Amino acid sequence: MSQSALHHFSPSILNCHFAQVSSAQLSCDSVTLDNILQRSLPLTHPSFSFSPLTCQEVLNSLNHISNKSRGLSPDNLCLAHLKPLFNVLSPYLTHIFNLSFVTGIFPPVWKSSYIIPLNKIANPQSPSDTRPIANPPHLSKVIDSLATHQIIAFLKRNQLLHPKQCGFRRFHSTQTALLSLLDDVRMGIDRGFVTVLVLFDFSKAFDSLSHSVILTCLRDLGFVDTALRWMRSFLSDRSQSIVGLDGQASQLEYTTSGVPQGTSLGPILFIIVINTLFSRLHYCRDTTIIFADDTQFYLSTPISRLGETVSRLNSDIARLVGWSHDFGLTLNTRKTQAIIIGSTQNLATIRTLTVPHVIVGSERIPYSNQVKDLGIIISCDLSWNRHVNSISSKVHNILYRLKFRGSFLPPSIKLQIVNSLVIPHLDYASLVIADLSGYLNTKLQRLQNSALRFIYRLRRDERLTPFRRKTNWLSIPSRRLYFLGSLTHQIITTNQPLYLSSKFIPIDNSLRRSSRIHSSNFTLPTSRTNIFARSFWITAIQYWNSLPRSMQNLSSASSFRSHLLASLLAAEPL
């Protein structure tokens, strides 16, 4: 079944809808820009201005973008066809890009995008049941990526992003964010505490963000006048159209708000804005996790202080509501979730108490027994039955459709399809659920076994190990060990993300952090309960300490993963 929304709605109707969503705020006019430029630059760190680009930087970016760019480009240029001429073109493009930075003008011809409309659901009833995928001009992606690289380097060099800002940052992921959260929850349970977790949802945050708000945040970070004018030019006067099934483009529609879709700068501008939330908070500043627009607060507490803790959460939630109003964003209270996580004994005690409500604006948020957090279903007792059942349902559904339509395909093609459609469901954030019961582990293993039987058309009683080796797959428990070792190696060698690396303390404290890759052992925290003993913090250190010194000392990520994979494959039963 096609995912294109063009089978349900005309290009003009879809384009008008998408443009309306991205015009929730007025554009930043010249008067507003002048007022923003009157704001003083910060004195705590150097200011930001775009550095001149070199031909080599532009050539590298051209090659990188050309390998990723697909589909129609509004400027009718195909970088793949121009690749033999990159060495000739790069000096001219370098001059154009640098002139753009110096004058503070983003070329208008690169501000128009083609929109690919996709269905959110099987049978959309209105344009709101669809979502846009933007494809800007391919050459615009080149200067966009180069500008993004300079801004990211500025943010990193001056440590301007909060450590718990997890989205769109190298070495950060939904998995690392969840591991940080659940390690804190497990440590709380070890101390006899419960954790109150509240998850927030913003309505169309990326599309409705005011350009004036973005530019104000950039100024407060230290963007000089020319850099800010370039950013205003980059954001403003953008247009979009949709190419219909007949190949004809719809009429252009203009947008006035939001970060430009399909650009490298868009997500970075968004996290710069949402990063300002941390400074507003009093109680949850260090227990807030933000991934893109997914925001969550949590506090751990003894049951005797549960009421006081909920009151503190509500105090910071009120600050979040005020911040959202100030920045023109809307919290979707219908999708806000709250949960109290703890040991079975403490949860039983809480059921006998009257716990104050979590309040968002004027809405009371009920406590749930499970919540979906960044794609993982978390239960109040940290059991994973619901989440594994969800994985099982998705994988069975995919395999059923594949067996119905693709049984005639050769094994090599089936393997590619399964690696694309099935395995990601088994692997996604697998370290978060690493403490599965034996029964749930077996359930996931049977899903992998079903995928193998589909690929090679095997009988149910046929041995699977030879075929698993043929595909170079590890069993489900061994795959988690592979991911555990790989992530631990990343944390130790890069010190990122900081909220996980700070927990890895070498036993020999005289070792510098930069050289601790050569230390074989890290200090294990003391645990009183099994639930904390199965935390990422403890299991990662235990596993790392058990590895051979020769493997620990491999500084290259690819070499480490290769040796680890070979070791785990060799340890698999024949």
What does this molecule look like?
The protein has about 575 residues and is of the alpha+beta class. About 50% of the residues lie in helices and about 10% in strands. The protein has 24 helices and 13 strands. It has helices at about 10-20, 30-35, 55-70, 80, 85-105, 140-155, 175-190, 205-210, 210-220, 225-235, 265-275, 305-325, 345-350, 385-405, 410-420, 425, 440-455, 465-470, 475-495, 500, 530-535, 535-545, 550, 555-570, and strands at about 110-120, 130-135, 195-200, 240, 255, 290, 295-300, 335-340, 360, 365, 365-370, 370-375, 375-380. It has a five-stranded mixed sheet with strand order 6-7-3-8-11, with helices on both faces. The chain has a four-stranded mixed sheet with strand order 2-1-4-5, with helices on one face. Strands 9-10 form a two-stranded antiparallel ribbon. Strand 9 and strand 10 form a beta hairpin. Helix 3 packs across helix 5 (about 85-105), helix 5 packs across helix 10 (about 225-235) and helix 19 (about 475-495) packs across helix 22 (about 535-545). The radius of gyration is 26 Å and the shape is globular. The protein starts with 10 loop residues before the first helix and ends with a helix.
